[in-house]
Amino acid sequence: MKNKNLISVVGPTGIGKTRLAIDLAKHFSTEIVSCDSRQFFKEMIIGTASPSAEELAEATHHFIGNLSVQEYYSIGQYEEDALKKLNELFEKYDTVILVGGSMMYEKAVIEGLNDLPEANDENQNKLQEILDDEGIEKLQEILKELDSEYFEVVDFHNHRRLLRAIDVIWQTDKKYSELIAISQDSREFNVIRIGIEAPREELYDRINRRVDLMMEKGLLDEAKGLEKFKHLTALNTVGYSELFKYFNEEWDLEFAVSEIKKNSRRYAKRQLTWYRKADDIHYLQLGYSEKDFDGLIEYINLQTQK
């Protein structure tokens, strides 16, 4: 199936990946597979900037709003489901689009997950006690000390990611960042990675304005409706955890919104750190012209002929 091509659109949150993915899908008359793990959940539309109804109508998307926050869904399950879907799509199309900023989920699709050990119950129980007694900040501190490189890119608000990384480090006596860096190189399709980049100040301004737009669209009501699920992993994420503190009267609304903006910018910074280490991403500038898009298509066509 090496004559089949997966175009993976990557980049930090708020940079415009959805629009580019749709433009590419329309050009190649194909469909889109999402690897944005936050957009899997149908109850989290506004806070995850899921594609609008109009955008979904422009091109067929997969793995958008396909789960409930009450469902447990692992990266391993996603890898299996995404590859199955790609095999189906490659029966109909020579080219398929992958899009999303969840770095490990993209890696699972284009390279495969690494052969990491299963969770160790003793380690997990010990880490859970630390989380319960000393809070997530203590887990962040432990991981930063054990593997500062992975700490730079991990979603450190997600305690499950922290628990997993520390557990693996304790079991293997190796850095998690080193273990996941090993490519499995087992895919039967070509991968062409496309990124969008912008000056950091412009990106951060876009993020701030997008949070304001989310609030205008009803993020507060969306989060209020999900408050009863705030203990679930899916809701332990930027845009929701801050508003739960507002509902709990720990923060006022203005401060909660400012924290959403700050944490979104921090997440974008971690994404930029991750992508900067890759040497196989072809970049477009934010605000690309029709001429730039034509140049991108030319580049993609050249890659498919190799």
From TrEMBL:
Entry keyword Transferase: yes
Pfam family, one: IPPT
Reaction catalysis annotation: adenosine(37) in tRNA + dimethylallyl diphosphate = N(6)-dimethylallyladenosine(37) in tRNA + diphosphate
Enzyme Commission number(s): 2.5.1.75
Gene3D superfamilies from the UniProt entry: 1.10.20.140, P-loop containing nucleotide triphosphate hydrolases
Keyword Glycoprotein attributed: no
Enzyme class: transferase
GO biological process: tRNA modification
Region (Interaction with substrate tRNA): 36-39
Binding-site positions, ATP: 11-18
InterPro entries for the chain: Dimethylallyltransferase, IPT, P-loop_NTPase
Cofactor: Mg(2+)
Any one GO molecular function term: tRNA dimethylallyltransferase activity
Keywords: ATP-binding, Magnesium, Nucleotide-binding, Transferase, tRNA processing
Binding site for substrate: 13-18
Family, similarity comment: Belongs to the IPP transferase family.
Complex and partners: Monomer.
Task of the protein: Catalyzes the transfer of a dimethylallyl group onto the adenine at position 37 in tRNAs that read codons beginning with uridine, leading to the formation of N6-(dimethylallyl)adenosine (i(6)A).
Protein's name in the database: tRNA dimethylallyltransferase
Encoding gene per record: miaA
